[in-house]
Write a structure and sequence with these properties.
The protein is of the alpha/beta class and 373 residues long. The chain contains twelve helices and 13 strands.
């Protein structure tokens, strides 16, 4: 039995975290006697989504560990020491790190283990983003300098390009052990939805972290512009949490057609109730939510963004440029005036993701890598 520790930032509604959950669940299902998984978060999340997800993972015999009960910043200092404790206790053969902050904590952990001449588990890293350490150059160099010839998986072609650029920028050798594995996505089921859907309006959802990467600041601005022309026709559902939570809350209180919700567990099974999903992302690695929406036959209104583009057909008509106010307004006008053949769009997107993003394929490819390591 190979024990694998998935290292994530926290148990919340993030794309890289969902990949870690899906991977552990699917590998456990397909290879019950070969793998044991421990999902390890740097700092705790105490919202309802986290509580529900921990319970769900426990029912699937997937253990969860929290390295620090306090804030994210303090966890970067404390987590390496608690991680060492759990490495000694759990004895994982492989640590699989997801995104930059887990990589940073893992780099510090490895340095400490080296200093005390303690054995380090085999390392695998999945690169989920296309912009790496863009605002923290020193942290990036500190982190990357530890990893030599580790196994690196990119979730998209542009994420591997970003990894290569980061290594070259810091004058570090690029790992020869690179793999491209598209994030797999299960086909959502139709579950009861907790959202206030208005069948007389066009229901548009934003789901995810309220952060600059996801473009939530742009969405707040554009909703007000859109409402000036089409407010009576649209209802926006904003689901999640994050840095811009107060701004979203203020918008929802002052704008009748904006509803705000906490992050919702298994959101993929509840997307079917919306008419559209909007994703004004600045960049992504390979975002699952777009794929899940296409599986749910909910068309995605998407910004042109690295990583997000790979989840939709190349000629997708619901694309817009973030810097253009007019493009999104024109797109919404066409939606209101029913200028698109939505059934055709839904089927086109469904066929596209069905061909490219198989959950079984992802799990089997990772399983082969685990066994090889």
């Amino acid at each position: 039995m190979i024990k694998i520790m998935h290292l994530i930032t926290s148990i919340h509604l993030g794309g890289s975290e969902v990949v870690a959950f899906n991977l552990a669940e699917q590998c456990k299902k397909q290879h019950p006697n070969e793998f044991e998984f421990v999902v390890t978060e740097l700092h705790s999340s105490s919202d309802s989504y986290a509580r529900d997800k921990k319970k769900e993972l426990a029912t699937k015999n997937i253990k969860t560990i929290c390295l620090w009960k306090g804030s994210k910043r303090v966890s970067l200092i404390i987590a390496p020491f608690t991680l060492i404790y759990h490495i000694i206790k759990e004895k994982p053969q492989i640590i699989h790190s997801h995104t930059d902050l887990p990589d940073f904590v893992l780099a510090t952990t490895i340095r400490i283990l080296y200093f005390f001449r303690m054995k380090t588990p085999t390392i695998m890293r999945t690169i989920h983003n296309t912009e790496l350490w863009s605002t923290h150059d020193r942290m990036g160099k500190y982190t990357e300098s530890v990893f030599i010839n580790d196994t690196v998986v990119g979730v998209s072609e542009v994420s591997l390009t970003a990894y290569h650029a980061l290594r070259v920028k810091n004058k570090l050798p690029v790992s020869p052990n690179q793999h491209l594995i598209y994030n797999g996505c299960r086909i959502p089921q139709k579950r009861e939805i907790p959202f206030k859907i208005d069948s007389k309006k066009i229901n548009i959802a934003f789901c995810g972290r309220f952060e600059l990467q996801k473009g939530i600041d742009i969405l707040i601005e554009r909703i007000q512009e859109i409402n000036a022309k089409f407010g009576d026709d649209l209802l926006f559902h904003i689901i999640g949490s994050g840095t811009y939570e107060n701004e979203v809350l203020k918008l929802s209180k002052n704008t009748p057609n904006v509803l705000m919700y906490e992050a919702v567990a298994n959101i993929a099974d509840k997307l079917w109730g919306f008419d559209f999903l909007i994703m004004p992302s600045r960049f992504e690695g390979l975002v699952l939510l777009s794929i899940e929406a296409s599986y749910s036959r909910v068309p995605v209104i998407a910004a042109f963004a690295p990583g997000l583009d790979e989840t939709l057909p190349s000629d997708w008509p619901l694309h817009f440029h973030l810097e253009s106010h007019d493009e999104l307004l024109l797109l919404v006008e066409k939606l209101v005036n029913k200028k698109y053949d939505l059934n055709t769009l839904k089927e086109e997107a469904f066929r596209f993701v069905s061909d490219k993003f198989s959950l079984d394929r992802m799990a089997n490819t990772y399983a082969k890598l685990y066994l090889k390591l």
